[in-house]
């Protein structure tokens, strides 16, 4: 039998983006009569931001707890960084960082003292502690507050310090369970800037749970979880493409003529008061051809893709409870999302 520090199973060629850092196969958890997680399977590759998107009670936290060895599965199997979560929990714990919904910092200690305490718990080599603390505090832009008591921090600063702490021992995977719950939109933006910086600079693998659609948009891939089951997995764009067509709105000087020309070319098209609306898959790729067919009269073009709300509705038959509808998302955050796709 493999020793506790011997990876039992690795998949994908090491050192490539295809390397699986987290694997779950038929994972399940029952609490008495309640099935919190039912036969969930997924793979997370190195460097990915992977989001579990689902409403309260869907089974997100339970899945994270199993992967972090804080709860035992009642069915299936999972590995983190190549180690079996049930048989090699100590090896798994050494390789993960965790940020839970509840704050777990000692607010009577300074930021730096909290980090030093964590460094001892996680056996960060003494010679590296100061360097690592400097680095993670810079990553979350709290280096100037390092000597302040955590009790003087805002909720957002404390959450960011928790992320820094989760990173301190250079984990293979950082788990963020509803990381922005209770934070105001501006603070959520700043926290997301931290997370994206982490990914960019450290190629960190991040497992995120959320019930916010706008937050899930940041993920490379999303698994939609409902009543304990994963009902769909894919990139945000893939999921949107699966549920329906894009619409391309063309505002032109001659909507009637353009509608006729596009229909003759085989497009499904509808003339509205202000624009000609074309229904098509992968709308962006059709724009050059649509403009060419329309002639010189095009004034503006807008491509609309189904939203993650549409995706969630499609797969679950209902809407996720939204505390932060995407129209309240700060402009800076929306711009960032747009740039990534
Ligand atoms: N220790 C427990 N004992 C009994 N039932 C539990 C326990 N933990 C979770 N559950 C139940 O399992 C289901 C999934 O809960 P879980 O906390 O994983 O959901 P979630 O998607 O993370 O939602 P939330 O964000 O509200 O925590 C819920 O029905 C919950 O009541």
UniProtKB/TrEMBL annotation:
Instruction: Name the InterPro entries for this protein.
Output: AAA+_ATPase, ABC_transporter-like_ATP-bd, ABC_transporter-like_CS, DrrA, DrrA1/2-like_C, P-loop_NTPase
GO cellular component labels: plasma membrane
Chief location bin: membrane
Q: ABC transporter domain location, by residue?
A: 22-252
**From the UniProt record, which GO molecular function terms apply?**
ABC-type xenobiotic transporter activity; ATP binding; ATP hydrolysis activity
Which domain of life does this protein belong to?
Bacteria
UniProt subcellular location: Cell membrane
Q: What is its EC number?
A: 7.6.2.2
* Entry keywords, A to Z: Antibiotic resistance, ATP-binding, Cell membrane, Membrane, Nucleotide-binding, Translocase, Transport
Show the SUPFAM superfamilies listed in the entry.
P-loop containing nucleoside triphosphate hydrolases
**Looking at the keywords, is Cell membrane present?**
yes
Q: How does it sit in the membrane?
A: Peripheral membrane protein
Mind listing the GO biological process terms from this record?
daunorubicin transport; doxorubicin transport; response to antibiotic
* Any single Pfam family the record assigns to this protein: ABC_tran
Homology family: Belongs to the ABC transporter superfamily. Drug exporter-1 (DrugE1) (TC 3.A.1.105) family.
Task: Spell out the protein name for this chain.
Answer: ABC-type xenobiotic transporter
